[in-house]
Amino acid sequence: MGTTREITLSDLDDISRGAAILGTGGGGDPYIGRLLATAALREHGPVPLVDLGELEPGAAVLPVAMMGAPTVMVEKLPSVDQIGLAATTLATYLGRELTHVACAEAGGVNSLIPVAAAAQLGLPLVDADGMGRAFPEIQMVLPTLYGIRATPMAIADEKGNRGVLDTVDNHWAERLARSATIDMGCSAMISTYAMTGAQARDSLVPGTLSLCAELGALVRSARAGFRDPVDAVVARLGGRRLFTGKVTDVVRRTVTGFARGEATLAGMDGDTGAELVLRFQNEHLVAERDGTTVAAVPDLVCTLDRESGEAVTTESLRYGQRLTVIAAPADPRWHSPEGLALAGPAYFGYEVAR
Amino acid sequence: MRIGIDVGGTNTDAVLLDGRRVLAAVKTSTTEDVTSGIVTAIGELQRQHAFDPAAVRAVMIGTTHFINALVEARRLAPTAALRLSLPAGASLPPMVDWPRRLVDAISGRAYLCHGGHEFDGRHIAELDEGELRKAAEDMGRAGVRSVAISSVFSPVNAEFETRAAEIVAAELPGVAISLSHEIGRIGLLERENATVVNAALRELAAHIVDGLASSVSGAGITAPLYLSQNDGTLMDVDFARRYPVATFASGPTNSMRGAAVLSGLDTCAVVDVGGTTSDIGVLAGGFPREATTDVSVAGIRTNFRMPDVLSIGIGGGSLVTGEPADVAVGPRSVGYELTAKALVFGGDTLTATDIAVAAGRVAIGDPERVAHLDPDLVRAALGRIAADAADAVDRMRTSAEPLPVVAVGGGSILLPDELAGTGEVHRPEHYAVANAIGAAIAQIGGEVDRVYAIEPGHRDSVVDEAKQEAVDRAVAAGASPSTVEIVDFDEVPIPYLPGNATRIRVKAVGDLQLGG
């Protein structure tokens, strides 16, 4: 394991800042995740970070995530035991010795929760995730395209309640997990998509935790050097600037448990006179410039503060904010017919000519 | 008549107002004990414009004293943070993200007990009264003098905080108790942080408020005394004793609101030029636009509602360096040593004030001492200041519409009469005491911030109910009912929750009802 790196306390700020960018407006504020990871690293020491390519085919990899409402997560904080409980519960059910923890999504709070879980369980963390970004629903991960199932999955609350779901398909997993989460008070730890090392190498998006750390460091150093942090992010993601403007209107409504809405931006700088509309469901889904779609899921649409380059979540969008909106390509597998069916614009109810 | 007083770190400013007319305005030095500076300021007002103390209907004080006490970590009480959340929450105990030196400064002790609510009102766990008594006993042994109590989802249901306060008060009579649902909103750590900070300031608040009250009554004034809060509204002294944390952002708020009154503009950008920095904020409808991100104070994350202020490093004491082609102004400053170090005061450092004197914008100190300055350098430095200020104002603008700019503060002579891209700079009379005027004209507010479960078809009645409650709170706090209006309304659906859970925030304000 000559190439093993470690996640230490000093990496967490950068990971958190980068995770908020890949969160594409959703994923929850990584602040709580950063604090949990900080507390766990203080207690248990650094977490070894393993490249996807280094995984033994027989490794037992368990992604860990927090499931629930971001508004609840900032109010009802986890217990100490809860953080690793879903993973150990699932391992017991599977009758396997757990060897690695992984991230279900790269973005927001769930980039940091697995760091805390790995530290607590004394296990290495895989430098990869199931989405390469954040999406709102459990089945929206690339392993789904490889026939890897969400269940058996485990869910655990702060009281010590644990549940194992073994469902007929991933949509049932989403449905049952969601109702269990609500009964558990809308903030639960889950472990799902148990996979072998070989499956992880095939199906996960490699290097995304490193990418979070790198994005965070780029923003930090660009700002320190008085360079444009947005440029640095766009260049690293191979993306493009869509628009710079001021938020002039935000409309929100709750549809089937999700926060859907639109934000309108009036152009500034080179975009003066134009208008951009962002449509979101927790995460940004579609960006329309003067009525024409210019970016859409599964690609990443990120809202960054025009000055600082910090990600701005859809929850915190407010009149008057000055934002730069960027788009970045998703993992190419998301653009396959199966990928688009899972998390493309049509799934979210948008017709987009492509 | 009313008196407005602003107690800053350096200056204590006071104004005597009749309606919105300024009868007298004075600037004096802030004193270590705060109160003797206020006595001096009221005496100066009396000299400038003789008035009958009995004719003063209200005294409003804005102060940065409490935020400074936190930043400087002095005069803070030994404090305990008691959180009702178990079995949840133990992963991140109270004060987990605080700078070590501040935890030490308040001898901070954290206690976790059972309790708290789920988002839908269920109990996470029942209160364990024996456990609470044990915690209180331990606090007593450790010499804790102030207690902050937080409970999960207390902004939605405060019953556990209230009950725990009764138990702690019974065990520890005389100890000050601060409850999180009265101080912050959703977001446990931020709300709890603000509550712990408040608790640590309670003893100081009692001391200062007593001092303020006695210095005002010592001047023969019998009118009620108010302190200004972060959002530009007032609190009475009893409230101020219990919630000193609510004064934290009153400084910039008062200076912006004062600028609005002085200029007659209620939607404008305000540039407050001090000695080291200039603060730029935006007023909409007479109230400062609030920051949308969480605000850190002295390294502690809070969710106070603070005005959105952009600070740039240009002030009267800013160092001016370089040649005309590459002149730099600030961010380094001689600060409070301006009267010793600036050229016009016989010092040897070229400051922005020297540039203003050389350009004939203001006559202070000895103009002869800057007569030798290269006119090109003077022009270039003023150009630099104007360009930086114009850029900052532009960054704060929220629409392409031209936004009038009001310049206040002692250093505002540095600004030109017109800013590129925004137009005329309004420089109202009494600009140097805008903050004291802002304190004097502050209004009384009432606020509601709660999560509601909205049944289909009942949105309007829920919204009306929330608005009425905010209005009722403003009136209960002393606002004249006929003047109360809703100034802020925000409705945010909460994702993933069933039953259309929606967080509604309403703020109502009205003019202070003046007695007699």
TrEMBL record, chain A:
Sequence ranges assigned to domain S-Me-THD-like C-terminal in this UniProt record: 169-352
Signal peptide interval: none
S-Me-THD N-terminal domain location: 11-166
Domain of life: Bacteria
Database matches in SUPFAM superfamilies: CV3147-like
Protein's name in the database: DUF917 domain-containing protein
Species assigned in the record: Prauserella shujinwangii
From TrEMBL, chain B:
Domain Hydantoinase/oxoprolinase N-terminal, first and last residues per copy: 2-170
Residue span, Hydantoinase A/oxoprolinase domain: 191-394
A Pfam family of this chain: Hydantoinase_A
SUPFAM superfamilies the record matches: Actin-like ATPase domain (SSF53067)
MF (Gene Ontology): hydrolase activity
Cleaved signal peptide residues: none
Protein name: Hydantoinase/oxoprolinase-like protein
Species: Prauserella shujinwangii
